[in-house]
Structure formats: C-alpha cells, structure tokens
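I am writing to request your help with a piece of structural work I have in hand. I am sending you one protein, given as its amino acid sequence and as whole-number tokens for its backbone shapes. Kindly check, if you would, that the fold set down in the tokens agrees with what the sequence suggests. You will find the record immediately after this paragraph:
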Amino acid sequence: MNYKLLGRSGLKVSELCLGTMGFGTEAGWGADQQTSFAIMDTFANAGGNFIDTANIYKLGTSEKIIGEYISNHDRDYFVLATKYTLLDNRTNPNASGNNRKNMMRSVEESLKRLKTDFIDVLYLHIWDNITPVDEVLRGLDDLIRQGKVNYAAISDTPAWVVAKGNTLAELMGWSQFIALQIEYSLLQRTPERELTPMAAHFGMTVTPWAPLAGGALTGKYLRGEQGRIKPESKRLDENSVRITKKVIEIANELGVSPGNVALQWTRQQGFSSIPIVGATKVEQLQENLKVTDLILSDAHLKALDEVSAVPLGFPGDFFNEEAVKVNSFGGFYDRVEKR
C-alpha cells in the first residue's frame, strides 16, 4: 500500500484503515483472537499500519486483542486510532458522554487494554449534544500535551460543531481535529450536504465507516446470502438494489469484485478519504486489499454518481442550479429565470 498524510498533519498512514469492530466473539459473531491476529498479520504484510477501534467495540475485547498483538510487534509501526464517548461500563453517570471526566477515564482504560503508553489518534465517537465543544478540545489538547494521545479526531458529529471546534482550536492554539469519521458510501451520500465539504475546507481526512454498507454493496444479499443486516433495512430497499446492480455491472465489466468498485468510489471523490475496511475473516481483507490496484474511469464515476445521487437540499441544490451563473465582471452571482 501507499501512505497518505492524515489531515493537516505529518502523520503517515496506509491508504486503507483496518476496522476491528468485529475482533471478539461477543454477541455471537466476530473473529476470535487467533483469526484477528491473522487478519492483522495480513494487513501489516500488505503495508497497512492504520488500525481503527473503540473502547466500546466488543465491550473492550477489540482493544484487548489489538493490545496482545502489538505487544509482540513493533508498536511504533502501527498508527492506533481508538474512540471515547460510548459507555464501556455502568459504574457511574459520567461513564459515558463527551465530558472531560469520561474522556480521561476512557483513555486510561483504553491504554490498559491496548497495552501501550500512547494512543496515536483519539476520536470523539459521537456528539452528545450536551458537552461544550471547548471542554472537549481543551481535554484533548491536555492529553496531547501529556503525551497520552498524539492527534485528535472526531466522528459522527454535525458539521457546524466540527467547524466551530476547529476554528476555536485555531484561535486558542489547541490541537485541531485532523480526521472525520462518518458513514459514507454509495448508499449513504447525505454527508455530501455539509460534512465532506466542511472536511475538505479544514483539510481533514475523511475515514468512511461502512463503505460497503454492511456488505450490501458486495451484492451478497442479492445472491440470497444471510448476514446481520435486518430485512427492513434501507440498505435493501428498491433504491439500494438499483445502486448495487450498477456496482455489479461495472465490476463485471472491469473483472473485479463489486466491493472493490464500491470502496474505490469512496477514494475518488475529490477529497482526502481513507475508507475503513472491516474484516472477520482473512479472505475478506485479502479481497478488500485488491482495491489499491483499481482506478475508476470518469465514465464509471459518472454512472455511479448518477444512480446514487441524493438531493443536497438548500443551499446545495440552489448552488448547483443551471439558472445560477457567474457574472464575468466580478464573480457575483446573478439569478435568472429559466424560460
């Protein structure tokens, strides 16, 4: 794999990120420790160094497995990203949320499970709509100054909150968010309304989760294969089926897997993007790794964009209307009626 800079930083990470939400067998699914080790071996041998986990994944088992693995490997080779916010125990009312108390507690527990002295990238996992953003930023900056965290990032948060946070951090001299983790795929393009333009503006790398829409974009559900997806899921509705069929059509034309086409689409959207590829089997990861050899043509991108397009709403659609033209004298916009 090639390496990319993560956001506005000098941190070099692999062009794919290994998702480890499935490391552990709690809830009746997932990879045991031996299989998880084999997956991480495969990823590292392909040049992968960027690993994503969270304190909540498999009730902490994911972090424990990663900790066991890296304790017997070169810790400095790997870029470990984990998250705080969601509860990993029910001991007290502050054992969840974005607040500073939970942040500090969660980081200490993650460090123990990961068997490391520092976390490379710490994500706020999901916005709680309670904690002031300056409390979050100051807490993250303190952790970075203490050497327990190297970089701050954020996940599943409204664009206006992230924008306010990074602007405030720049003003105060605090560490800014360098990466934005969001659900993004051909079946979930609504982040294009606010989130991805905001990330591009601030130079943040987008790390899409569920880039294959829970496996729907591989076509396996159209083949009748079973999975953890619910029958009533929007990933299986008429629109999603139409999009998936187009992905399969292009994959057959190129002689690659549908999953590779769907993954590569997220990597060719005009902004820095490193999709998170989850795996509970070595074969799944091996297939996903093939995407690094694929480039989609403009024609293929156009076909995928058209079949999966979502309305941007106001002001996005307003900006894109053909009736809005640029005045050649000063770049002002003139509104003209269609006749």
In short: The chain has one domain: 3-311. Residues 23 and 62 are 5 Å apart (CA to CA). Residues 3-311 form a domain with the TIM Barrel fold (CATH 3.20.20.100).
